[in-house]
């Protein structure tokens, strides 16, 4: 490689440059220095002698003494390079290591101040942001129904407040990140404590212990045409899902009625079961009419819990199976009774033991169930809830109307309840 430098020099500058060139020429014998040839055709006025400098010579490393001297004199100077052109000096390596460590610390700080701050919050749910839950149990108990247990990820159970207190009917929003949509599901205050080795059925328990407050169950129906339900039921154990809530559907009044009626279809019965299964919750006596397409739409374990609620005089269930030709009619309903405040008769807990005994629906004492149905209720219902698909809600109580700023249901009461003189003042449609 040849480099010709032709600066315009005059006077003393020319002499200084020639003396410098002669000194450089004296060092040509040093193998560690660059080689300088005498100028071609003699020196020219204002010219610097032609410098022959090979790139390989420039890349040759200095001696150890020179490296130490240069590092002392120029601690922030340029790095020495080897034949491959990559950094070789210790100071260069130190700077690289320092940069990597600094980047790692910065990344760790960013992660802990963003993700971990949310995951370590004492709130099991947040109404203003999504928090992570993990699928800890999943069972397909019917051809299109799933039982899914969700557990809060990375939370402190000693500081977390219970989600279920019996003060309201509420749901959670689950986010589908791929298409950025959310759907509401009603959680049940139950968790899975292992499975039966013979039947492989889950052993359900009520949420009574602090360490289990971050867990609950979902009943999910899979629709072949529903993209969200397909995505949710395809989640595997240990998969993470994002939840937000609680979303209050109905807050119980401070003064409760003695008796209410509940008309639900399919998973629309879950808001009622959420209240009945909450330990220590004070709820009115419930006349429940549950419409199902087939008997397997609900897990067997829930039928048994409902039977226990009947034994405790908490509720009275009647199941209407459509594939068996059973259908809700106006004759099965009663007219609304005058309001009567809730007394102390129906405040007994659902079960004294937190464990839900293993059982099968077909071995339940059916005679005692029908005996409960034949019992005379203490009073007729003065308030009614309706929950289910839109067609069912319209059939029972008329079409709801939320087309207003307050999202208040102003739809006229129709259907079966209108035939029994029910009005908007004593009906709540859970949509």
From TrEMBL:
The keyword Cell membrane does not apply. Keywords: FAD, Flavoprotein, Oxidoreductase. InterPro entries: CBR-like, FAD-bd_FR_type, FNR_nucleotide-bd, Riboflavin_synthase-like_b-brl. The keyword Kinase does not apply. Residues 59-79 have a biased composition (Basic and acidic residues). Gene3D superfamilies: Translation factors (2.40.30.10). Its cofactor is FAD. Residues 22-45, 59-91 are annotated as: Disordered. GO terms for molecular function: oxidoreductase activity. One of its GO terms (cellular component) is mitochondrion. PROSITE patterns: FAD_FR. It comes from the Eukaryota. Residues 128-253 form the FAD-binding FR-type domain. FAD binds at residues 183, 185, 219, 221, 229. PANTHER family: CYTOCHROME C MITOCHONDRIAL IMPORT FACTOR CYC2, NADH-CYTOCHROME B5 REDUCTASE. Belongs to the flavoprotein pyridine nucleotide cytochrome reductase family. This is FAD-binding FR-type domain-containing protein. It comes from Ogataea philodendri.
């Amino acid at each position: 490689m040849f480099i010709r430098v032709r600066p315009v020099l005059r006077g003393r500058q020319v002499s200084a440059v020639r003396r410098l060139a002669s000194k450089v020429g004296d060092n040509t014998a040093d193998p560690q220095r660059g080689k300088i040839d005498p100028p071609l055709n003699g020196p020219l006025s204002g010219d610097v002698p032609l410098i022959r400098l090979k790139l390989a010579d420039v890349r040759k490393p200095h001696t150890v003494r020179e490296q130490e001297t240069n590092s002392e004199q120029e601690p922030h100077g340029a790095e020495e390079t080897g034949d491959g052109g990559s950094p070789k000096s210790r100071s260069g390596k130190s700077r690289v290591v320092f940069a990597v460590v600094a980047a790692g610390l910065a990344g760790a700080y960013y992660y802990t101040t963003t993700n971990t701050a949310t995951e370590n919050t004492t709130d099991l749910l947040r109404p203003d942001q999504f928090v992570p839950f993990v699928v800890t149990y999943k069972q397909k108990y019917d051809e299109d129904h799933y039982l899914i247990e969700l557990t809060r990820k990375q939370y402190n159970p000693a500081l977390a407040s219970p989600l279920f207190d019996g003060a309201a009917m509420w749901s959670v929003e689950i986010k589908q990140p791929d298409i950025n949509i959310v759907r509401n599901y009603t959680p049940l205050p139950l968790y899975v404590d292992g499975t039966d080795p013979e039947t492989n059925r889950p052993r359900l328990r009520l949420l009574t212990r602090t360490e289990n407050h971050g867990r609950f169950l979902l009943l999910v129906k899979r629709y072949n045409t529903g993209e969200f339900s397909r995505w949710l039921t395809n989640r595997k154990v240990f998969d993470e899902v994002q939840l937000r809530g609680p979303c209050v559907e109905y807050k119980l009044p401070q003064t409760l009625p003695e008796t209410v009626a509940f008309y639900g279809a399919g998973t629309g019965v879950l808001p009622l079961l959420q209240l009945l299964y909450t330990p220590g919750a004070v709820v009115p006596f419930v006349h429940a009419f549950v419409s199902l397409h087939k008997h397997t739409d609900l897990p067997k374990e829930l039928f048994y819990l409902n039977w226990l609620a009947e034994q405790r005089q908490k509720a009275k269930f009647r199941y209407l199976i459509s594939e068996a030709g059973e259908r809700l009619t106006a004759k099965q309903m009663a007219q609304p009774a005058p309001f009567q405040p809730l007394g102390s008769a129906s405040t007994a807990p659902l079960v004294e033991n937190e464990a839900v005994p293993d059982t099968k629906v077909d071995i339940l004492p059916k005679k005692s169930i029908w005996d409960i149905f034949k019992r005379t209720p203490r009073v007729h219902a003065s308030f009614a809830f309706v929950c289910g698909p839109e067609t069912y809600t319209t059939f029972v109580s008329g079409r709801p109307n939320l087309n207003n700023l307050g999202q208040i249901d102003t739809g006229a009461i129709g259907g079966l309840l209108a035939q029994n003189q029910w009005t908007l003042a004593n009906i709540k449609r859970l949509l």
